[in-house]
Amino acid sequence: MRGIKPLVALSGALVLSMSLFGCQGEKASEGGSTTPSANGGSGKKLVIGFSQIGAESAWRTAETESVKAEAAKLGVDLKFADAQQKQENQIKAVRNFVAQGVDAIMLAPVIESGWDAVLLEAKKAKIPVILLDRGVKVSDDSLYTTLIGSDFVNEGRLAGEWLAKKLNGKGNVVELLGTPGSAPANERHKGFMDAIAKTPGIQIIKSQTGEFTRAKGKEVMEAFLKSPDSASINALYAHNDDMAIGAIEAIKAAGRKPGTDIVVVSVDSIRDAFKAIKAGELNCTVECNPLLGPQAFQAAKDALAGKKLEKKTVVPDVVYDTKPTDQFINDRKY
Ligand code: GYE
Prior knowledge:
Layout: H1 6-20, E1 47-52, H2 58-74, E2 77-82, H3 87-100, E3 104-107, H4 116-124, E4 129-132, E5 146-150, H5 152-166, E6 171-177, H6 183-196, E7 202-209, H7 214-226, E8 235-238, H8 241-253, E9 263-268, H9 271-278, E10 284-287, H10 293-304, E11 312-315, E12 319-320, H11 326-331
Parallel strand pairs: 1-2, 1-3, 3-4, 4-5, 5-11, 6-7, 6-8, 8-9, 9-10
Antiparallel strand pairs: 10-12
The structure holds beta-D-fucofuranose.
């Protein structure tokens, strides 16, 4: 068993599928509190709590919008909680969702560790927990239902392989890490290290967190460029595009040419990254898709219907390193 509440779950799934197929079920009154017991066949809206990390990057904002849009489309009552980058706020939010008796919980966990206790509370309450984009390290993986997200190790590996080739096997790299302790920071670093281990001429000479934000990416790059060995920097690997874009400003301010003097590779593939590639200032972005809303609600629906879910669904990633057309940039969804 994976912490599924069969009776409530089934009715919740029925409500969801009714709205999926456009049937006019009995409408829940706006703002009325919906508890699992109130949900038992009365046609009330499915209630899902979503604990989001914050709004540190364009990627994160796109993920939030994707979840909210899908909830609206399906007629789900989404309880949204922004944790402002703090795990303690996410723990509080999950606890609140459990206390409210939501039908399911979506959680984008800021860091990997420290979730056992609160996930156990959700499990005991038989509320399925869908992890979005980032994974957790827990003693027992039955503490969550499923994880939907990219393979961050692979993203790091793709970035490292691309860079080793671009630098012809030789160069000094500086690295802007994501949020300390987060799955994408840990795994994008690991994948990159695995890739460059095959190329002894490539080394990381500095590595520091830019916390996935433009402002911090710029600030840390400024410091890197002021260090005594800064002239030897050939490349930047940033764990997300926002940090790379901030760092590109710092590179220009230091009188060096991003994209030429310093090769820049990052992850996410947000619209602004394509603009930077077009401007010749960013060389490569590895895609990480944030549009997880549709899959997340499908997983919640399946869990509530008692279906057995895969422990992880991997969203595939691709590498972009050529100049896009304006049309491509305009059509980009995030
Ligand atoms: O790459 C970064 C964001 O968890 C995959 O978090 C996500 C990462 C994403 O802030 O931009």
